[in-house]
Write a structure and sequence with these properties.
The complex is a heterotetramer, with two copies of chain A (401 residues) and two copies of chain B (384 residues). By secondary structure, chain A is an alpha+beta fold. Chain A contains 13 helices and eight strands. Chain B is of the alpha+beta class. Chain B has eleven helices and ten strands. In chain B, helix 7 packs antiparallel against helix 8, helix 7 runs parallel beside helix 9 and helix 9 runs antiparallel to helix 11. The chains are: A alpha+beta (401), B alpha+beta (384).
């Protein structure tokens, strides 16, 4: 047992860190670190810079541009990415739809889609959830009826993140309404510009509109856009949902936020003389979060090491714990930032909103994102399988209930 | 001991509940008002005045109702339940308390009837950028002009309702160090007086506030609230009245949010059953219920204690109130969003509005941590 | 609305307080306050003193010695009793078996039992729980088979508190094994000296043995010892369990403990100079408990006021909340006391145990009961309907799930 | 990075797991040993010696195995799982570390082989009645006798294993104020030396301890551990080694307690079904699992950091370890008792033994709150 990183691993960390710090524009990284909203252009720039370096689809097979990194290297890469405020490669492309096409697509589909997915020449979005199908995804109602060499798609998706930027969508649709739940579902893809597709942004409680409703009204999709077999789309969905294993805890992001909180707390006045970091009550809350975070980091490394021995390709259900604890810590940390801001967190200074009164409040340059980030991060224990669902999984798969 | 409302109180409660529930029945009403010029409805404000709500805490000789903390609690609960946007808190509760408790007869007679009638709105310009939650931390200066008046110089921030208020109750320092309780004064300043600059903005909970700069603002002798240099007790009691009201408003909000959540759990189906059939969600709803009940109790306790003459007892009690309100509001708010899932995250659903307001209430006039520390410094709640 | 106590109520408080402080021996009250174990004699002395004053069965109807106090008076009485360390009248007698006999007993039974119950001439214990029947009490297996004018009782009870002191037991037994669960149960009483009754003390994790297993081996009980109708014992049980409404939160006891913690913390060294009460971390935990306790006290008074309007005689299910929160606060407070003791809580100084090494450790005079009390109080969220059962009740009865 | 055990480590783990599980298979064994004269089994102790467990951390030239924190962690986990009573912690980990890290060659050569062979037990007499968790708070005095030796005067309390230890490692002050880190010294004292009085007693977790009075106790020059006056770093590292071991022991205990709880939930029936079919109990078991995993991680982290040469990094890490262990142990212990219901409250069931030991581990060498504060004072865990 040797719990230290090897010299090679440390060298790798240096390499990625230095790339991130020199090649990804500081203006973009600062936005992430300070909790300001990234534009589409920011995300594309970061993705394309990583892609040029060959790192955007590090997790893919070598033939399609992957890096064949060890789990430890992947861990280091993600941690450095997160703690340096580098926007990650677009997940819809690289860890969701791309791997599904690699696993289930035809050669023609692979050749057609993968290079543009990897390069973010097309921005993809995910059409899974529906108003009546959240935790119970398999109850989805959007239909695709075969007519000749097309499907006619009707229905509605919701919580579609960044659909406003998307060129393509990958969708779960019901192709056999008579089959039981999972059995009649297919995975199809089509351009967002297809006639009959409309999007409606949903404003979230942080003031932004990162999610959308997407409506399908007789949308005509060629049969060759079916990925995998008809009525076997649930396999793709399970594969996709089980695919994200280690980024999920977001240790690096929380570390970055804790560092920022400590830095700010060393200059924000406590009100009663001195700065907030000298207030033991606040400082102890920060330290308590650091302890949980360190434990989670070690837990992640332990699971990662166990994963190496896992040749089954099946996700380790214990990774649900990373989601559970990771989301809890992310929420603790965003709440601490709001607490740090105190009364200065009260003003609402969203520059993309249409509310009147666009005066910049005092303290806005650092305090304005505090409350919106806290509000926004309530979602991390809801989406991607709510924490209640994760507990159900752990109870069954790990504890054997 | 008697927990029953009097007939008049019950009537007030029924009326204010009915009116606010009716006016804010649609969440769209709220989101549209949020985007309107003033950020609230002047028509609703007029109705509140007609119902006598704006007159509640003031003496009858000034056009008030001569009522007390129970009555403003009833209003607070209703306003919290309906998520009312009108500036009742800044006008009647905060600045209103400062005038009621601090001003001389002449000022009261001049100003309060207008407040009670709904023709004058106020704001309490006390918070400063570096003061955080310390009530005595005031650097805005008031220099005597030699004729009984003062010249104000300084900056205030997050002045609730400050963007549209007609007059401001401004705290400033006539002497003493930055955080000294001695040397503070309160002034009634016209919001459009020369030297007053306001930068208004929305707040996270959908209401409005402003940063206020005071640059050579002249206040006559008739604009001084009480005795200059001795205002700290008035400021403290103003904030204590604010805490009592916020406690009631938070209780109204969290009660409604809890009901909304239980209702949602009973109707939302997943896996072929209402999600409320899952024991885990039931138990978590029960824990929310417990938090709401504990908060209700402390909102009532606030009514008992906010007029307690013993200032140490009153202070400790009001710290305790804010601790419990902050703790319950956080728990109920966070769990409500979690139990709702995605829908609770959207501005199209009332749940998120409650959550945001409850979150902001904790940040107003000291969060739970701050008041716990102050309570501890004061020796705790039980007799020392 | 007037949330202050009336002058009459304050006078009543003065009266009970002064009686407690002058008539109940300080030696007994100190034991309660300091967390030392009470002897049987202590409990009997306190009970008989209260009885002589006419207060032991204040909650009974006037005809049987009750006081007809208002709910507020009852509340004041309990609070003063608890905060002055007065051992309460024996609950098995006065709030469990006595009220059941008053409600369900025959005139002959009332005359025979009630005076001795009230005076604690007989010590009663409760035979409800069985090894297989805890939360699911109605699944109990102890049988009583009618033979002429006797029942023959066989089976086993457990968690029988203070059975070692008891003269009589009131028992739930199954008289009709063919009936469904609740329907075949009867409530019978008999002396602990009846042949065939044996007790085995169970040592608990605090080191004491306050609970027992009680075994019945062909115990012969006269039919006249049946209380209420045969096979309708579940009515008695429900009545008994719903009867305890307001003592349950034990606000007075927690208040007394908080006061003691604060008093001790003003003289216990913090280790780093000064006393523990000057340590803001510890003092804030105490203050946080005080806030919850004050809120609970107000909640109790609100429920009490609501109860006045409740003429149905049915318990208000919201009182489950008093149990829930009350037990939580009791556990918080006992834990704080252990934390206060710190390393001095480690020695085990149980003077009634047979472990060797009866040296009195340093600090034992105040620190010795800290850990055992903490251990013992884990039970308050388990017995009398576990907190999970209370949540089930609240979910159903209050929230309407 | 490599989390796999080496072949030797795996063998050690298998052996110690098997032996302790076997010896402590029955809870009756433990409760009977608790009541025996020594409070533990000398036969088991001999077996541990034969297996080499007592030699693990010591250098090979002193009869040790020259192994490290991973190996003692494996022992700690096994001992925690089996709830072993033998004085491994006081002898090998605490006093053993003080000798290993502080003593000169002569003392090591004289004492350690005996410890490793199981013929000598030790205790670490450091805690004083008024010191609470402050490691430097030592009032026991050591006065130089002019011949290189010292005379000790003072009182120690809660000396773990102190009732039956053959020798004591005693801390005392040669100079400086009560809580100064300068001026401390460590001495190896025969437990039966003239002037040493021991009052032994059981502890809450079933082990033993003693209060020790030192009255004119003479220690020769050969009894001084390291340099008198400079012992604080050795004391601190001794305690850090103690924390690393306790972390492992706590993990062994809470892991077993969690398994016991899950097993109980699956078998205990109420309302005609195993109570483990209730979702609430499942989710709470899951939360316990999360706590156990977080604790495991920090026990491993302790192994990485306990020998870290940078003393600030090491110190911050070991504070963090004790924080997490205390927090997890409390959560897992309390929930285990609650989920078990009555049976968990009895001494006849192993669950309660785990709970009590876990509770005591938090109180040893600083509870979670203490270490959180110390961590905060040191600037927190992440690079400042």
């Amino acid at each position: 047992m040797d719990l230290r990183f090897s010299p090679e691993e440390n060298a790798f960390r240096q390499e990625v860190r230095s790339f991130f710090q020199t090649e990804i524009p500081l203006s973009i990284r600062s936005k992430s670190i300070e909790g300001r909203r990234l534009t589409k252009e920011d995300m594309v720039t970061a993705h394309k810079t990583l892609h040029k370096k060959g790192w955007a689809v590090y997790n893919w097979p070598k033939d399609w541009g992957g890096c064949e990194w060890t789990p430890v290297q992947q861990y280091i890469f993600l941690e450095e990415m997160q703690s340096n405020g580098v926007p990650p490669p677009l997940a819809f492309n690289t860890s969701m739809n791309g791997p599904v096409i690699i696993q289930f697509g035809t050669d023609a589909q692979k050749k057609k889609f993968l290079p543009r997915i990897a390069a973010l020449d097309d921005w993809w979005c995910q059409g899974f959830s529906e108003p009546g199908s959240g935790s119970d995804l398999a109850s989805l109602k959007t239909t695709a009826v075969r007519q000749g060499d097309h499907y006619i798609v009707n229905g509605q998706k919701t919580w579609t993140t960044l659909a406003q930027y998307a060129d393509w969508i990958f969708c779960l649709v019901r192709t056999d309404p008579s089959a039981k739940k999972q059995l009649g579902i297919s995975y199809i893809v089509f351009p967002m510009t297809t006639p009959g597709v409309t999007r409606r942004p949903i404003q979230l409680i942080d003031g932004g509109s990162e999610v959308n409703e997407v409506f399908f009204d007789d949308v005509k999709v060629p049969v060759e856009n079916l990925i995998g077999e008809e009525n076997r789309g649930w396999d793709c969905a399970k594969f996709l949902l089980g695919n994200e294993r280690f980024g999920i805890a977001r240790v690096g992001i929380s570390k970055m936020r804790v560092a920022r909180i400590k830095e700010l707390a060393r200059r924000v006045p406590s009100g009663s003389g001195g700065v907030l970091m000298e207030d033991p009550q606040f400082a102890e809350k920060v330290a308590a979060a650091e302890v949980e975070l360190k434990a989670l980091e070690m837990t992640q490394m332990r699971f990662l090491a166990a994963e190496r021995g896992n040749k089954s390709g099946k996700p380790n259900p214990a990774t649900s714990m990373l989601k559970l604890k990771g989301s809890e810590i992310q929420q603790t940390v965003t709440e601490l930032l709001m607490e740090l801001a105190g009364p200065l967190a009260i003003p609402y200074a969203n520059d993309e909103d249409d509310m009147i009164g666009h005066n910049e409040p005092i303290g806005a340059e650092w305090a304005a994102p505090a409350a919106p980030t806290y509000f926004n991060y309530r979602k991390v224990s809801i989406y991607g399988g709510s924490n209640e669902i994760q507990r159900n999984i752990l109870a069954k798969a790990v504890l054997g209930f | 001991m008697d927990f029953d409302l009097s007939e008049e109180q019950q009537l007030l409660k029924d009326n204010v509940d009915r009116l606010t529930a009716n006016r804010y029945a649609e969440i769209k009403t709220r989101t549209e008002l949020m985007k309107s010029a003033k950020g609230y409805s002047e028509a609703f404000w007029k109705e509140f005045a007609e119902m006598g709500l704006l007159a509640i805490p003031f003496a009858e000789e000034h056009g008030g109702m001569g009522q007390g903390a129970i009555e403003t609690m009833l209003v607070g609960e209703a306003f919290g339940r309906a998520q009312v946007l009108e500036p009742y808190f800044p006008t009647v509760i905060l600045a209103g308390s400062a005038l009621r408790l601090g001003a001389g007869e002449a000022m009261k007679a001049a100003v309060i009837p207008e407040v009670a009638a709904g023709t004058l709105t106020l704001a309490f310009a006390h918070q400063e950028p570096e003061a955080r939650f310390d009530l005595a931390n005031v650097t805005t200066s008031a220099k005597a002009d030699g004729k009984g008046g003062y010249v104000l110089e300084g900056a205030k921030c997050v002045v609730l309702g400050g963007d549209s208020a007609d007059k401001l109750v401004v705290s400033a320092r006539v002497s003493g160090d930055r955080a000294s309780k001695d040397g503070l004064a309160l002034f009634l300043v016209d919001a459009n007086a020369p030297g007053v600059t306001r930068k208004g903005y929305p707040t996270q909970d959908g209401t409005r506030a402003a940063d206020v700069t005071l640059s050579g603002v002249k206040v006559g002798a008739d604009g001084v609230i009480g005795e200059a240099g001795k205002a700290y007790p008035v400021i403290e009691r103003t904030v204590q009245n604010g805490i009592a009201y916020l406690a009631a408003e938070a209780v109204g909000g969290m009660n409604a949010l809890h009901e909304l959540t239980v209702e949602y759990l009973k109707t939302r189906k997943q896996f072929g059953v209402p999600i409320g059939s899952f024991q885990v969600l039931q138990h978590r709803s029960v824990d929310m219920f417990v938090s709401v009940e504990q908060a209700k109790s402390m909102a009532l306790y606030a009514c008992v204690m906010v007029d307690e003459p013993d200032e140490s007892e009153r202070r400790r009690a009001m710290h305790a109130v804010k601790v419990q309100i902050g703790k319950s509001a956080r728990h109920v708010g966070q769990e409500a969003i979690q139990l709702h899932g995605g829908i609770g995250m959207t501005m199209e659903y009332k749940g998120g509005h409650y959550f945001k307001r409850l979150t902001m209430i904790d940040l107003m006039f000291g969060n739970a941590d701050h008041h716990l520390r102050e309570l501890t410094k004061a020796g705790g709640l039980l007799a020392a």
